[in-house]
Amino acid sequence: MGKPSMEGSSARAFFSASEERVERWRELHRAVKDKRQQDAAAQLAQLDALEDLCGYPGSRLMALVHERLKENDWPGLARLVQRISLSLLSNSYRDDPEAWKSDEEQEDPHIPKVLPPSMGRGQARKPYCEVLIVSPGERSTWGAMADGMRKLRRETDEFVIEPVVVGSFEDAVLAVLVNYNIQAVVMFDGFGYAAQTPLPDLRELIAAYLPQAAAARDGDLAMLLARGARAIRPELDVYLSTDRDVAKLAGADEAAGIRRVFFALEEMLELHLALLEGIKERYETPYFDNLKKYAQRPIGTFHALPIARGKSIFKSNWIRDMGEFYGANLFLAESSATTGGLDSLLEPTGNIKLAQDKAARAFGGDRTFLVTNGTSTSNKIIHMAVCRPGDIVLIDRDCHKSHHYGLVLAGAQPYYIDAFPLTQYSMYGSLAIQPIKDALLALKAEGKLDRVRMLVLTNCTFDGHVANVERTMLECLAIKPDLIFLWDEAWFGFAYFSPFLRRRTAMGVTAKLRAMFKDPAYKKRFQESKGALPDPDKVRLRVYESDSVHKSMSSLRQGSIIVVADQDFHTVEASFKEAFFTHTSTSPNLQIIASLDVARRQMELEGYELVQRAMQLAVEMRREVNQHPLISKYFKAATPAEMIPAEYRKSGFSDYGQEGWSLTRLIGALDNDEFFLDPTRITLLCGNAGYDGTQFKALLSSEYDIQINKTSRNSVLVQININNTRSDLAHLIKALADMSRLIDKRLAEGGAAAQAAFKARVKSLVEDVPDLPNFSRFHDAFRDNPKSKTAEGHMREAFYLAYDAAALEFVKLNSKDVDERLKNGPEMVSSKFVIPYPPGFPIMVPGQVITQETITFMRKLDVKEIHGYNAALGLELLSSKALAALKKEERSSTKKDRER
Fold first, then answer.
1. Which of 30, 88, 399, 797 has the fewest Cβ atoms within 10 angstroms?
2. In DSSP terms, which residues pair with 681 in a beta bridge?
3. SS3 163
C-alpha cells in the first residue's frame, strides 16, 4: 500500500485501502516463507512508510523485522511477520500485550513487559487508542518524544493511549485518513508542509479531501491542519502546543476548532490528562452508565412493572426459561420509575438530557431527541410540530408511509411530486430538483408560496439513491428562503461519520451552508447570481433529520433520533414538545434508550473505521458478483449507471470498479452529480435466474439461512452495514454460486422444454414489467380551487370521510364496472392508502382519483401483500353520493363566506 499505493490513484483502490495494509503483511509473509529476499525487501519497503503512521507494530518490532531479514533469519522472521499480520487482521493488539512482544519476550517470563502496559478484558478492559503527534523536530528525536508520552501513563488511566509521531502536514493528514485508531491530534507548532519523500498518491488524497490545502501551504499550518483534521473526522480532539502568544491565540476565531492550547512543553502531564478527558467525553454514555449502576442496587419495586428485578421470571415454575435465555441484567435494568437517576424521556433533565446533547454533537445538530418507537414516530413528530392545518408540504409520493400519515395528522396539504421511475426494476428512484422547483414556482405564480411550509425528501432512498443535498437546498431556498427541510435519513444515519458521504447528509450540508452564508465572498456571488442563489440576508436555515439508528448503527430495534438544526426552533419549540408528548409512550423501553446512547458512543469513537470497512466490503461484494463467471450468468449487482439515469450523472460515473477514475474525480462526481448511489445498498438482480424478488428472498432464507429485507419484481436489496464481515460476504457468494450451479444443472437435464419455460419466465420478470403509475390528482371535492394548476389537496378530509361507512362503496378490481367508470364515470376516488409490497409505496392515497394507469398496474401485480386492499371486497372508494354532498356543502360554505 505504500503511502498508500492507490494503484494509479484509482477510485477502486480507495475503497480497498483499509484492507490493503493487512494484505501487504500477508504478501510479506508469503515472500518470507518462500525465502524470496528481494520480494520481501520490496514489500517491507512499501510497508515502512505506512507503518510510520500507525502505533502497532511500532518502531521496535519493525526494527526487529528489518534485523531478521538482514540476517536471513527466515524461521524467526516468518513467525514475527505472521504474528503481526494476524494481530492486525484480528485487532488483537488492542487487547493483548503479547502482540507487542518479540518471540523471545513471549517465551522468557524474566524479560520485562513492553508497551502498551495495561490492557484487560470484560469490565476491566481499557480501550486502546492512538494519538497523533505532529512534531517539527528531527526524525531522530521522535522516539524520545513518544517514550516521554508513554511515561505519563498511570494505572488509573481509563484508556491506553499509544503515540504516533509524524513530521509534516501531509503525513498528518494521511495518518488521519488511514489510521482508524487515532482519537486526537497534538500539534507542536513549527512543522512543515511536505512529506520527506515525494508522494503523488498522498497529494491525491489531500487534493480530494482538502482541495484548498496546497494553496494555503505557506500560511499557518497548525490552523490549516486543525481545520483539515476536523473536516475529515469532526469527532477528533485537536490540541496545539506553541510558543506564540497563547492567550491571544486561544481566543481567536481561527482556533475555535482546537480543544486546548498549551504553551510550549511546560505542561506535558496536563496534555496527557486533557487527552484522556477528551476521549472520556465521547466514551461516556450518561444513560447507559447510570442504568448499569441502577441494576446493581438492591431496589424494592412497588410500581406497575412486575418484570422489573426478574423475580416473577426466575421464581416461576413455567417461564424461568425466559430468564435463562436473556440473563438477569435485562430484568435488573428494567423499571417504570424516572427517579433514582433514570430520568424521563418526556421531560429529560438528567442523564437523558446529557445523552441527547452528546448525540447532537455527534450527529452535527443543534439538538437531538431520542425516540424509542422508530423513525415512523420521529417523522410524525416533525410533521405535527412544524406543520399547521392548511400548510402545503412538497413531498415525494414514494416516501415512507409515516410521512403520509403524518400529513393526515397535521392537517397539512400534500403536494405530491413523482420521483424518476426505474420501471425495469419496478421501483422509483428519487425526487429530482427540477420538479421541486417547478412546483415552488407554480405555487408562487398563484400567490400560494407563503403557504408552503416544508419539503420532505428521503435521503438515501431504500434502494440507495443519495440526493445532492447542497444543490437541493440552495436552489429551493433561492425561491423560498424560509422553507423547512425534512430529510428522512432513516437508512443513511451512518453516513455522517464518513468524510466521503458526509457531504451528502443533511447536517453535513447545513454546517457548510451556515459558514457559506456568513462569508462575505458568498454575498458577492449572490449579487452576481441574479437570484439563482439564496439571499444570505433573508435565508433561514431550518433543517430536520430523522435517523433510524437501529437500521445502520448498533441500536436495538426501533431506536431512532431526530436531529434539529433550525435557527427558528424557538418558534416551534412549544408545538414540538406537544407533538413529542403525543407520540411518545409514557413507558419507553429503557434498553432502547441505553442502546441509542451506546450507538452514539461507538460512532464517535470508531464510526469512521466501521463505515469505511462497510463501504469496502460492499464494493468488494459488487465486484465478486459481477465478475464471477458463473454467478454473473444469472445474478447481477446493479451499477450506479443502471440505477441512476445519465441525465443525473453528468460526471459519467458508472461503477465503483470503473477503470481510470482517480479519487479526486470520484469525489467530484459525489459533489456535483444530482444523484449518487450509496455503495452499501446493493440491488441484487435475480430476474435472469428466473426468480421474482419475493421468491428469491424466501429461498435465501429457507435454504441458505440468509436474511434479506426489501424485494422488487426482479430484485432483492442486499444491505451492507457495520455488522457485516468478510465471512458474511463469503456466505452470500457461496449461496449464489450454489444456486447458479443448480440452475445450470436443471436446464441441462431438462432439455428444450425446460429451457423454453425458463426463458419465458425470465422474460416475464425482466421485460414484461408493468409501467409504474404516477400520482394523478386529488378529487375536486378535496381541492380549494379545482381550476388551480397546483396539485395540493385536503388528504386529511378524505381520510376521515372514510370513517363513515355510509360514504363508502366497493368495486371489484377486475370487474367490468371498473372499466366502465374509467371510461364514462363517475370518477373512482380512493378512500385510503393502498400500498403493495413490493414496491412499498402508496399507489393510491385518500382522495386520489384512480386512473387507468393505476388499475393496469394493480391488475399486473403478482404480490401477496397489499396494505389497504381486500381482494374479497374490492377497491374501497369514496362513494359518488358522498363526494357530491361534500361538494355541495363546500359550495354552500363558500357562498356564506362571500356573503359575510
1. 30
2. 719
3. strand
Length of the chain: 900
pLDDT tens for each residue of 62-76: 999 999 999 999 999
Q: 606 is written with which cell numbers?
A: 470508531
Residues 6+ apart with CB under 8 A from 629: none
Residues 6+ positions from 772 with CB-CB distance below 8 Å = 421, 423, 426, 427, 428, 839, 857
Characterize 337-348 residue by residue with b for buried, 16 or more Cβ atoms within 10 angstroms of its Cβ, and e for exposed.
bbeebbbebeeb
Residue 837 phi/psi, 5° resolution? -125, 115
- Pick from 725, 491, 490, 497: nearest CA to 607: 497
| Sequence-ordered alpha helix ranges (H) in 7-93 | 11-33, 37-51, 58-70, 74-90
| Model pTM score | 0.94
Q: Which of 344, 357, 281, 285 is nearest to 598 (CA)?
A: 285
Give me the amino acid identity at 694.
T
**What confidence category does residue 540 fall into, taking pLDDT thresholds of 50, 70 and 90?**
very high
Strand 392-396 to 452-458 pairing: parallel
User: pLDDT for 248-273, tens place per residue?
Assistant: 888 888 888 899 999 877 688 999 99
- What 3-state class would DSSP assign to 252? coil
Cis, bond preceding 460 (omega within 30 deg of 0):
yes
CA–CA dist 350, 600 (Å, integer): 17
Q: Tell me which of 11-20, 205-214, 444-453, 549-558 is least confident.
A: 11-20
Bridge pairing between strands 421-422 and 427-428: antiparallel
For residue 489, count other CB atoms closer than 10 A to its CB: 29
